[in-house]
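Q&A log
Question type: sequence-to-structure
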Amino acid sequence: MKGLLGSLRLDAWMFAALRLEPWTFAALRLVPWAFAALAAAMAVTGAARGDAPSTEENLNVVQWSVMRRQSGPVNYYQPVLDPPMPFVRAQYRPPDATTVLGFQILDSDRKTAARLRWQWRAQTLPHGGDECVAGRRDSAAVVYATWKGLVRWYTLKYVWSAVGALGALCDPKRSPFLAQDTIILESGGPTGVWRHEDIDLKAEFRRHFDDGDPHGDVADFVGVAIMTDGDDTKSESAADYADFVLVR
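Response status: OK
Response body:
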């Protein structure tokens, strides 16, 4: 997969301009109760710690949409209504084109977003997928985090790689209007095991896009997206995504 920035077109990550196609699964009508329970649990946890109310927001999967300009015609993502933790299952099969699901951050949260947490588990690793090798840039799972400056868009692509080196920084892209880095956050097996990730959004932005300046300005955090693909290696790829939380 060449990545959402592709040929560094100006419109590659303009969430506001994208025509989003809502999911049409009938089962989605059953999802809100599960997320309401999760939100209530998080609120109780926050109160126990003495935190200010509404410091965490569950990014409800019902509101995630296909990003049409970055996606093929087949939506291979399905919600799974597992009561302990509802999740999204992605099952890519060649020769389908890659599809991406995106979520827009509310205007009121864009400057205050501090951390992003989620859980994911690889189910099928794309054969030989390595985000640092041209022609093999397929991932079992990808989470994109995107910021918008005055004229520039910034994206960090966190991946679960098949064989790439854990912790590697791959395929950096820079232009006057767009910037993207790929980070191998997980690699290889075991498959079928949930792993929890916790990203400091402001620190990550400064590390990748402001030379690590601890006092540097941070652009507005505008969106999150997920992707599973196997189009480069022409192999099957699958993963589950769950429990996305934005901490303010």
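Response note: The longest strand covers residues 237-247.
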